[in-house]
Design goal:
Elements lengths: L2 E5 L11 H15 L3 E7 L6 H6 L1 E10 L2 E12 L2 E7 L1 H4 L10 H15 L9 E5 L5 H9 L10 E6 L7 E3 L2 H4 L14 E2 L2 E3 H8 L2 E4 L2 H6 L10 H6 L4 E3 L29 H10 L10 E5 L8 H6 L1 H5 L4 E5 L4 H11 L5 E4 L4 H10 L2 E4 L9 H7 L3 E5 L2 H6 L13 E3 L4 H16 L1 H12 L6 H16 L3
Parallel strand pairs: 1-2, 1-6, 2-5, 6-7, 7-11, 11-12, 13-14, 13-16, 14-15, 16-17, 17-18
Antiparallel strand pairs: 3-4, 4-5, 8-10, 9-10
Length: about 475
Amino acid sequence: MIKVLFAAAECEPFIKTGGLADVLGSLPKNLKNRGIDARVILPKYSDIPDHYRMAMKHVTNFVVEVGWRKQYCGIESLEYNGITYYFVDNEYYFNRNGLYGYFDDGERYAFFSRAILEALPHIDFKPDVIHCNDWHTGPVSVLLKDKYINNSFYENIHTFYTIHNLKYQGIFPSIVLKDLLGLDYSYFTSDKLEYYGNVSFMKAGIVYSDVISTVSETYAEEIQGAHFGEGLNGILKSRKNDLYGIINGIDYDIYDPNCDPYITANYSKTTEKAVKNKKKLQQILNLPVREDVPIFCIVSRLVQDKGMDLITRVFDNIINKDIQFIVLGTGGEMYENFFKHEAMYHENLSANILFDNSLAHKIYAGCDFFLMPSLFEPCGLGQLIALSYGTIPITRSTGGLNDTVHSFNKYTGIGNGLSFANINAHDMLYTIENAITLYEDKPKWKQLVNNAMNCDYSWNRSSEKYISLYKYLIGMKG
């Protein structure tokens, strides 16, 4: 049996700030069902709900070297949905509100990366592959090769590194190389960890991991160019033979309109989308109850990267059409205030500046169009969820959006959504106008919704790709 330890800074259902947690909450479960002994290790944050914290069992404790420091590390474990989770306990580093944004994040995640490796002999689990995720675990691969090369226990442990978003790299002053990671300055070169005079934890993972992946084929190509490469495109291009794009999936146990407990009326691929969900959503959000009107929605962080400038630039043109528009999310104060202000003057706009999982499900089930005009999008989960509910995504052709949303051709009947290529608000507006026209053509509309709901973006295909790469790694000479 192949043994894989996933290492990440967040994981559903314990702690979440974004899509990374969704992936870590669903991919290991799918791999487990395919015969992989998949386990997960993450920090024991104080924000993890008490009922999970109370259920954890103490496994062991030991000392971790963080540069010249010697820090306590406890390991707690919890089995949930058949998966074993390990939690790295250190109150100085993780007994804080929130996950990131602290002045000593470099020290906190240097400790976490070293603790992952130190824990292995203590937890009775030697993985064939440590599958690291994003900058928080970037140092694992270089530490494994530098600190444990002469320790026989660590022989034949391979590293797999997934980039979920290259923009966030974990960049810290050069002093962290010696002071936190305990590495000498031979690593401070442009082909190793040096990044414009600093140290990049993300770069450490890219340079020293045995295999690298990112979360869509298009994004894997995009990040090898200067525009999306965030200063790492040269290194990524040099490792293109070890770089794979594997699209994320969604957990259909959670996002299935046929059994979703949050929505008013369940429906399936073989039945028409239940109009009761639309009417109930309109009632809940105090919108005029109209079955005939198309409802557009945004379920997103309200930030520039998600295309909010495109939306706000032509919002008057959008909202003055015979439509309804629903916003759910939080983010930049400028965008939050914009939607709050607009909602005061338009009865066909509902602005919900909050995080509400139950309402999100109701929106996916009750709306007709899901607007996601991201400037860049490594993969995206929102459009995959929308497709599952028969809510048609309108997206910009970038990253994972390009790989998963294919513009509907009214002549052939092929396609599952609508998309536009340029970062241009009027191109987006033109696509929205086409969407409204398509909505009014009921036979074509029915075909499009049917196409969307019959897409399979479960983890099944992607899991097979991961397993194939794990087998490839294990077949390598140690």
